[in-house]
């Protein structure tokens, strides 16, 4: 029987525990725009007491520079309006330009705005703002999450801001030919050992990803293979996966710990691997508990891999179907 992405998506689904991240983002989505901006400010400053993101490199900030310069020159009311427009995904020139940014450039843009807010150059939260009970509620929900989950909530809310440019075709906004590189924060883990896993495609995938060798990782996929990032639809085909990896997977440290492999009657294999991933934004200070669910075809190629955020560290051991 031919493998399909739809059936691949369901492998090991009965070992999965719903993550609290979408529920927290759903609470955030219900806040009004000023409350959303305030929530992000309080969540970010609270989080900053224990962890802070690494400053983005010069090349990365250059991509956001023209917007940042425009915003710095505005009055406080205008600055607040820009932030409201971004949060409400309004169709304005700035919100459109932001919508064309890659995920990491969006994060860098807000990182820099946050610095300007701390310095008092930009109003930190809307002028005259009073914290609402709704904001308190979402902040309390956020405090119950572990740090890896908290940074995922922040990341995903930032990524969703700005005008949705997906239907607009390629950007007319100047963009670097390639994504600026992330400096690796810890040494590359070269020899990969995963308890319970000897599958070459899986070990090769982790090894290549840990060295940002995306072409090597892509070569392990079937031509119609797919990668499904956390809370997203599958990205299908080698070219699309390669583009995604260059934009979003640079500098990640993947530390798989254990896994399980089940051979199917047609010779394909289903594997679930759990472990920890670190993002270059926070380096070794934040570990995210994740799982990879691989479907390997009978020729040993990756037909599908889903990356899921785990609900709790206990879930790292949750490999067997019941
Ligand atoms: C200024 C302030 C505070 C207030 C204002 O009102 C509003 C905003 C938005 C503000 C600023 C907020 C800022 C600066 C937030 C910054 C957040 C950051 C830097 C978050 C970074 C998070 C990174 C994460 C969660 C990365 C996760 C990566 C994973 C799980 C990667 C998984 C992958 C694996 C394992 C693969 O095998 C394939 C690739 C893939 C990437 C899917």
Automatic annotation (TrEMBL):
Translocase recorded as keyword: no
Coiled coil residues, start to end: none
Domain OCP N-terminal: 18-169
Keywords: Antenna complex, Chromophore, Membrane, Phycobilisome, Thylakoid
Lineage top rank: taxon: Bacteria
InterPro entries in UniProt: NTF2-like_dom_sf (IPR032710), NTF2_dom (IPR002075), Orange_carotenoid-bd_N (IPR015233), Orange_carotenoid-bd_N_sf (IPR036917)
Gene3D superfamilies for this protein: 3.10.450.50, Orange carotenoid-binding protein, N-terminal domain
Ranges that cross the membrane: none
Record bears the keyword Membrane: yes
Family assignment from sequence similarity: Belongs to the orange carotenoid-binding protein family.
Name under which the protein is recorded: Orange carotenoid-binding protein
Organism: Dolichospermum heterosporum TAC447
